[in-house]
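Dear Dr. K.,

Following up on our conversation at the group meeting, I've run the structure prediction for Serine aminopeptidase S33 domain-containing protein from Triticum turgidum subsp. durum. I'm pasting the input sequence below exactly as I used it, so you can double-check it against your construct before we proceed with anything downstream. Let me know if the numbering doesn't match what you have in your notebook.
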Amino acid sequence: MANGDIKYQEEYISNARGLNLFTCQWSPSNYEPKALIFLCHGYAMECSISMRGTGTRLAKAGFAVHGVDYEGHGKSSGLQGYISNLNDVVVEIKAAGAEDTQGSTELASAAHVVVSVEGAELADF
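The predicted structure tokens came back this morning:
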């Protein structure tokens, strides 16, 4: 699959605390993805640059891939590098997952999470 067969999008969403969170999505542009994968970056990282290669490779393999810069990380608002409660990140990722799979029983039942430092907190996803 050539890079032209990958659709890449960026947008901002607001969380429950009123912060703007940057999100990025990679997906196959010519067919339905086989599953949805969330890329969860590590501390003091972001999704659009450090995870670009991974997102592109997974989309080429037929997956929809979504990433979000946690509050205070990357292009998201908030005190740089500071997360007051990691459980808030888990809630936001779960909410994004519910929204992203809405209307697709196939994706909802096949959602996956790829994690980094926060693996223990996100294990209940």
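Two things stood out to me. The helical segments are 52-60, 86-101, 105-110, 119-122. Residues 24 and 48 are 6 Å apart (CA to CA).

Best regards,
J.T.
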